[in-house]
Description:
Two copies of one chain form a homodimer.
Chain A: H1 3-30, H2 38-45, H3 49-55, H4 59-79, H5 87-109, H6 118-123, H7 127-145, H8 154-164, H9 167-175, H10 181-195
Helix pairs in contact in A: 1-2, 1-4, 1-5, 2-3, 4-5, 4-7, 5-7, 5-9, 5-10, 7-8, 8-10
Keywords (chains A, B): DNA-binding
InterPro entries (chains A, B): Homeodomain-like_sf, HTH_TetR
Protein name (chains A, B): TetR/AcrR family transcriptional regulator
Amino acid sequence: MDGAQQRTHTRSDAVRSRVALTDAVERLLREGRVDFSIPELASEAGLGVATAYRHFPAPSDALHAYYARAAGELVEALRDIDVDLDPVRRFETHCREWIAQAQTWGPAVRHIRSHEGFIERLDNGDPSIVALYSALDAVLQALVDAGHMPAGDRRVAVLLWITIFDERVVYDLEHHHGWTAEQIVEHLGQAARGALRIT
Amino acid sequence: MDGAQQRTHTRSDAVRSRVALTDAVERLLREGRVDFSIPELASEAGLGVATAYRHFPAPSDALHAYYARAAGELVEALRDIDVDLDPVRRFETHCREWIAQAQTWGPAVRHIRSHEGFIERLDNGDPSIVALYSALDAVLQALVDAGHMPAGDRRVAVLLWITIFDERVVYDLEHHHGWTAEQIVEHLGQAARGALRIT
């Protein structure tokens, strides 16, 4: 193996280890094991402790990486939605995709909600929050442009939408209130429409 | 001092210590010190470590006691609202009082949100949640009775109201968006009215 191949191999090993560790964070969180140590994370991932420490010096680093991945998956899914849809239909499609996403990572993410608010993290330039804001703001802008929503404080409108679509709310409705995804989409979508005065 | 006096004295000392420790939890949380130890809590309260352990064997016990006190203060404040108010006015008065309360304990409580949802804790009989549900449900029942709100899934309606009035949202709007209490009351109240279809 020459030098270039060696580097490629090493890099893809690193990517694989990082994915395995981030997957392990998700499994630990789903079990409510929020206070895991790096050796415990390594064990869950089936990797050596030194490898785990190389990727994540502290558990908080692993939690941030997992949160960023989940938020990134949400933003990617929302970006795939057709921008040429009728604005109200586009809003509804975002609501539907959001619930589908929240059902995948919500059972883990609900354990690690930040104490910092959405606006605080937006102002601090948190990349996950900036990307999510940008995706949702575009949907609301189209509603305003089409006369389906009053122009107003857009940051607060996005904050309200995110607040109503909280993954803990979705989890609660699915696992403790017995609602189907379709019922959750319909009810939370209607609540967000009412809160944002979308007609 | 006879036996009865001794017991009374001891009991009031215990009450004072518990209040001092619970006050200390609030100060630690406001500073973001969520992971305090019992000796740290004792030091913050100006009490002996043995006394602190007697009240709170683990930090989670102290956090629960603080959360229950804050939730109890909210319910007490809501109970003081005149039940004979016009139903919509009564709803608005609850919104106003809730924001005033959230401004007092929100900066601490936002650090310790449960990963369990509202419905899950209601079903588990969590006394703080049951009392809050009961207070809010009565306000919504009056709105339904007066024809100002559609009858529907009441647990979900209370969940939505609580979700929109989240202390982290209130903190974010006050400290990072520069809104006054009056602006927060008006905007979140209007959002909750829209979400719950209150007319």
